[in-house]
Structure formats: structure tokens, C-alpha cells
Amino acid sequence: MKNVNILSVAPMMDWTDRHCRSFHRLLSRNTLLYTEMVTTGAVLHGDRERLLGFDAAEHPVALQLGGSDPADLAACARIAEDWGYDEVNLNVGCPSDRVQSGRFGACLMAEPDLVARLIGAMREAVAIPVTVKSRIAIDEMEEWPTLERFVRTVSATGCDHFIVHARKAWLKGLSPKENRDVPPLRYDLVHRVKQEFPHLTIAINGGIRNLDEAAAHLPALDSVMIGRAAYETPYLLADADRRLFDGLPGPDRHAVVAAMADYAEEARRTRGTPLAAISRHMLGLFQGLPGARAWRRHISENAHLPGAGPEVLIQAAALVRRGRETETPMPRII
């Protein structure tokens, strides 16, 4: 079997920024983390520190790119390698109107020959792994013939790692949010890809809610990618190292809060990062426990206020330690 990260957290727009990834890294030392999708235009012409900056503690970390020009993607792949990313991934799955108008994302499922040229250009430009994240098909295209042709065509470039979101994307008639839920999951087709292309590394994505479901795919597949569940109930990652990587379990929730409080103070001191930019990713940390509502409420009511600092996190965690909701919320931070 290839040396591959058997669990990853999906790239998610507006969610998997550097603060989210630093939080997730505290929970799991081994899970592969992805950036949000960044367009080639943004990388080439935008604020690279803001778009690409990450902490060394985030490794292993991959950059996901969106684009459809071979030269631009090759240039961005070189930039990703220079910045120290462990992998660069091409988005062939996002169904939003913005990516359709730019001829990238899920609409590229209809152009496997173009995707092969894109991947070939990226592979020639860098030594780090170049991977693809796709859907199984789009719109009226037949699912298995589309997926089989896509994987066969793109893998001919030498690309050997495919992450497949096991849903069709409907570019006409469904919103991006609906595209994450409405099209039926076809896990069987992703498993069939592995059977038909056993030499490739195949990862599955879509609707996987916990580590039990992730582990159920691993006897047949190489890797599992978890999306919203890892964001909304992030503490599931804390047991990933023990269960999937033969490592030690992650820290308890309160140790994570203490570490994130230190992180928030450092980010405020060195980059002027407001607490709310960090704490918003942590709202689900105590999901399912007594006091979880008080945790969320205290952060939501206080983290955005002027002068709010890491003490907001410490105070919110103290409410959880009480193990109950409180009728008298702690004072707002002024």
C-alpha cells in the first residue's frame, strides 16, 4: 500500500482557514488538513501571506487550487511547493456559479482531457504530490461512464491519487448547499473505481459522519475524507490517531481550549487577529456534552466585542465544567 494519509479533513470554503487547521491539528497529529480552495488568480495576484500562510505545526497540510489554465496552475503549484505545502490538489468538484463562470471546479468533469493537461502541467512543475478532488459526474452525464473515463484519462498523466466526492453535482437547478445533500450518495461507484484501478490511491468523501463510518471504508479504499462532520463535531478527530494511525488519543477538550487560548493570544499579538476569527471554528468542540450550549452562547456573545481576548475561551470552558446551563450568563467582555 502507498504511504498515504488515510484520513483527511476536506477543503471547505469559509471554514478550513489557518485558524481552523491549527485547531484541528491539536486534535489529531496525523490527519491530513486542506486549505480552502484558492483560485489561481488569487495566488498569482493576491496577498499570498493571507491566502497561503500557515504555521509549521499544521503539517501535513495540502493546498487546494481552482483553475483551468495549465501555465497558471503550474506556476501556482510551484508557489505551493515553495511555501512548504505537502501536497497540491486540483478542485474538480465545486459546483458554485463562480467556479462555473471561471471554467473550473465541477464543470471540469465534462472535460477530462483538459484536466489531464492541467494535472500534467502541475506534475511537471513540482516534486510534491499532485492530487485531484472530483465528483462522480455532473448534470445529465451517466455516473459510472463519466467517472471511469475521468479517472482513466487523468491517471494516464501519472497522477495516482484521486479523492472522489460520491455524489453527482447538478450545476443547473441546485445550489452549492443543495449539492452537498440532495444528490444521492453512490459509495459503490467509488469502491468500483478502486476495483477497476487497483494501482491508484482512492479516497472517498461525502456524508461520512464519524470514525466508525470512516473505518468501514478502509478495508476496500486507501483513504477517507471527512467534511462537515469534522467541522461541526470536531472532537471526533481526537480519537483518529489511536483508531486509524496506531497512535495515541488526542488531548481532552479543556487542554485544547487552553492551547487555543495561547494560540489566540499569539495571533492577536503578532498579526492582530481578532478572537472571533479563531473562536468561530471552535463552537462545536463540546457538542453533545452538558454545558455545550453555554459554551457556544458565551463565545457568540463575547468573542466579537472590542478587546475580546483568549479569556473569553477560558470563561466559556468554565461554564462547561459546571456541567449545566446557567441562568445568569457571565459578564460580557468590554
UniProtKB/TrEMBL annotation:
The UniProt entry, under Pfam families, shows: Dus
What are the entry keywords? Answer: Flavoprotein, FMN, NADP, Nucleotide-binding, Oxidoreductase, RNA-binding, tRNA processing, tRNA-binding
E.C. numbers: 1.3.1.91
So what does this thing catalyse? 5,6-dihydrouridine(20a) in tRNA + NADP(+) = uridine(20a) in tRNA + NADPH + H(+); 5,6-dihydrouridine(20) in tRNA + NAD(+) = uridine(20) in tRNA + NADH + H(+); 5,6-dihydrouridine(20a) in tRNA + NAD(+) = uridine(20a) in tRNA + NADH + H(+); 5,6-dihydrouridine(20) in tRNA + NADP(+) = uridine(20) in tRNA + NADPH + H(+)
Q: Highest taxon of the source?
A: Bacteria
Q: Which GO terms describe its molecular function?
A: flavin adenine dinucleotide binding; FMN binding; tRNA binding; tRNA-dihydrouridine20 synthase activity; tRNA-dihydrouridine20a synthase activity
- Give residue ranges for domain DUS-like FMN-binding: 9-312
InterPro entries, sorted: Aldolase_TIM (IPR013785), DUS-like_FMN-bd (IPR035587), DUS_fam (IPR001269), DusA (IPR004653), tRNA_hU_synthase_CS (IPR018517)
Active site, UniProt feature: 94
CDD domains reported for this sequence: DUS_like_FMN
The record's annotation in HAMAP family points to: DusA_subfam
Functionally, this protein is described as follows: Catalyzes the synthesis of 5,6-dihydrouridine (D), a modified base found in the D-loop of most tRNAs, via the reduction of the C5-C6 double bond in target uridines. Specifically modifies U20 and U20a in tRNAs.
Q: Which PANTHER family match?
A: FMN-LINKED OXIDOREDUCTASES SUPERFAMILY PROTEIN
**Family according to the record:** Belongs to the Dus family. DusA subfamily.
Protein name, as recorded: tRNA-dihydrouridine(20/20a) synthase
Q: Which organism is it from?
A: Azospirillum cavernae
